[in-house]
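Dear support,

We are seeing what looks like truncated structure output for some complexes. This example has two components. We would appreciate it if you could run it in full and send us the complete token output so we can diff it against ours.
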Amino acid sequence: MPHRTTNIAGLSPILLTHLHPLALLTSYFLQFPSLVASPPSTLFSSVFPLTMIQVAYAVLCLDNAALPHGHSTSTTEKKSKSGSLRPKKADSASSGGIAGHILPISLSLLLTTTLFTSLITILLFLFGAPFTTHHSHTILTATHISLLIAFPLIYVHKLDSQKWSEILSFTLPLDEVFAATVGGMIGSWCGAVPIPLDWDEPWQKWPCTILTGAYLGYVVGKFMGMYVVKGKKLVF
Amino acid sequence: MRPNQQWLLIAATNLSLVVGIFTFAVGFFPYKPFLPGLSVFSEESELVAAPFNKVVFMVIDALRADFVYSENSNFKFTQSLISSGAAFPFTAHANAPTITMPRIKAMLTGAVPGFLDLILNFAESDTTSTLSHQDTWPAQIKARGGKVAMYGDDTWIKLLPGTFYRQEGTTSFFVADFIEVDNNVTRHVAPELERDDWDALVLHYLGLDHVGHKAGPKSAFMLPKQAEMDGIIRKIYTGLETKHHLKDTVFVLVGDHGMNDAGGHGGSTAGETSAAMLFMSPKFKNYTSGGFPAPAEPHGEFRFHTLVEQTDITPTLAVLLHFPIPKNNVGRVISNFLPMWDEKDRVQVLIQNAQQMLQVVVATFPHFEPLGADSSQCSTKAQAEEIKLACLWAKALEARSLWQRGQATADDAIEELLRFTKEAQGVLAMAASSYNLTLMTIGVFLLIIANILSLISVFFGAGSTGSIIYTFAINIPVAILITLNCIMMFSTSFIEEEHNFWYWISSAWFFVMMLKERRNGEIGISSLVILLLIRISSRWNQTGVKHQGAPDIVTGFLLKHTTVMWILILATYLYSLWRLNKRVCRRWGSAPSFVLASTIISAAVTFKMSFTQQDAIEAIPEWLLPIVQLFESAPLVSLARAAFMALGIAMSITLFAERTKKDPKRSLRISVVLHDLLSVFLATQSRFWNVPLILVFNIQFRMLVKLSSSASQRKRPLLSPLEISLSSLLLQHVAFFALGGSNNISSLDLSNVLNGVSGFNVVIVGILTFLSNWVGPVFWSLGGIVLLRWWADGEVRPVKEKDDREEGRISPVRSDDPGDQEEGVYRQQIALWTLFWSIVGSAVMASCYMHRAHLFIWTVFSPKYIYTMTWSVLHLTVMNIGVGALWRWGNKWAIE
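Here is the complete output from our reference environment:
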């Protein structure tokens, strides 16, 4: 099924979802020099613009109806299984205009910045982030990655436990949002590659390469999800 | 393909791999031919005056230039000699590998030893590495009826057997000992200074190197050690001044190499290659025009005063003491000393040096044609090296004859001669690395054959008997792993920092395994624990080059909190006790089992504690000291033998006593016990601070057993045999680097190679050297066999439903015989590992071949090649396949 033709702003979600990566990458690479110069302060000050881009993306492109693939199956399953409280809420939110978005957005942001930032911080530590130093670097990086890859997922799937168990075992069929999440994770992982090289470039320091990898991976994953692997499941 | 055919293919692959690796090595590390016999004087050289007739040659191991010359130095007396002009100070450039034996060789012969000496350094009794048939300056002194006395590092005695008139060697076994090892030398100094029967006195002090190894160049022990050495220098120099029979003695002080910031050496950083070199004598005051600045300012990293080559010491000694310059010398007489001769002798000294080097040039370049004293055909354009040399030689001869005829000054002739020796030294240093490209090409070719064979065995071996169907060759993780690892071999920084690659890719792998667990409806805790432990062990020992010496868990925490460290060490042994109790010797009941298990563990713990007491007593917390001191009188060799013997007995009992048991799981049980015994043995062969890592590996192993077996309410093993093989391949490398391994020679650990060995047995010491440096890989390669047994055991359980085709995994067709199953998956594991090391080995070869003119060929690529040789020949072929086959054969035999 295609995207809905208009959203609450009356703009085409298809157009906007293509502009979204452009906005992300432009804002990222504009602030890249200052990120290299002083990572923590730049990361901190760029949390707000990133949040804005992601919120706009969520509201304008990711209304539940805009992503039929995830929505239709989940509601039917949910309704048949455990009542229809949450899906109903979601439906009411999507049809309630801008005001109706405020609650889901705030809740998603809260989860993103608390639970998921912590989770991703732990993952970063497990994958080799410095443990005794650079704590603000790591936590802010986790916040960024979390806003990138977790926020849209939370916004779309709300607190649907069935969905989340699928997400946490990576069995959810790939779509624009989930593929971007996977892409962002793989990208962050690949971002570690240039760190050991002896080029002595300032951008080789923590966490510049990781974050660059995350943004690029996120964008690649998103397009893959839209056009290449849509509906497929990860096999391993 | 039938199993036997696949085994044949695997054998052929390994044969071609081993032969290829060695063939390439012979071409890559050419055995340097040398001119035999002692050189003799020409008639003219014979008459040159000799400023000195005796030499005191004092080596301080790892004496980096700044230790003597900088303002932080504690060589106060030596600095006063430098500023008063009684000493000529130099910085000597030592070639990599900066380890003691090749460096001593360089100073004895004046030649640059081949890289092969590095390998021979570790098999010291090898006769090809002695210098008894080569021309050295002690041999020259002996040949003219002189006597040489030697005290200190016994490398000298091994290199020059039968040369020394009086000698006493010290060994550098315990680096913790930097007091005794030097006192054993010092106590001979005063008596020797009284004697007048020697012509050369060699002293080699190891203490300063030990301080470096133990605590680094900035440690609190360093300055007192320098003061101690300075006192000995004062004693000797005062002897030179006051004793009549020493008045014509030159006192030489050299470092054989330097050290890096972590206190190690072997590589080629500025710190490691910059050694101090001083010539001292009251006579020099007339020639140094008022002395040199002391302390001095460095020009460049660790460079002070005049920079010379380390080999320059040989011809300089020869002309100062007036004996023929050793035949294979490529060093140059240091020109600072020339004013000690009159004009005529000065030219003659240089002629002697140049003529001797010319012989080396002729031997090195068979097509070299001396032009005589006629340089008319020479142009200034770029030419082949040997033509350039011929021209320089012709010019030098021309200049000399002009000077002889009074048409030019002696300085012109000297200048031309110096130009020739400089060029010759440069050219000959390069010629030391003349490769045999044919052999190298054959090596690459053989590896290509090995690659093809291993690919065939993996491709067509799959599903051959219908029992195991893998998709090895098209398996994405395997392909990614091999491809990335091959690409890395072409980048110097990735070779130096290879550990990062393995930590990085293993983290991702076990993250995916966690998702796999989650897909199976579990939390994923097993993989998560493995992942967490990889993260912890990756910080255990800082390895690689970029952050060498940076604090890690060992240096930053454990050695400062020794109580915590010993609790972890004891926990490791207690874990083994818990594992072995009731498992080893279970046939005779629980009491004998407990007795045997606790005997093994207490023997192993006693040995580890006593070893640590001698190696690093400050690493033992106070509460433990009383216990450690109980065994103070027991010699280490016996303690090690007791531990090994207990392990051996337990192993035999396991193999023999379990034989007759009619137990369907006895094969698995035997394997499990053997692996637990192995991990006790490997703890014995590890540095004490690394023992807790054995516990880490054991926990990871338990987690993998959970994933590979059908325990914990799983119908069948979660991991496929391929995933098990890949996991243990990854963990072999992770463990290697976590224990402090790297692709750098300086990380080789020789502290546990003499455990239980009293004499010097090359084979046993060789085996122990391999085992103590490959602890982690050995744990995981034999662990991989056990894991597959667990898998086979779980897989053969009577599960008859046809639910095999889940999630696209092609599952093996079941057979009822665990032996068949296990044999099949084991064969695939060996095929996979052979494929991995064969392809990566060829990548390393190709990289060495391509980079043979690279600046870092001797410092990055050659050491990597030596590590590759060890990985593929010793670890893959001998360990994984040879010992693995023995292990399985013993096991099979035991259950029949």
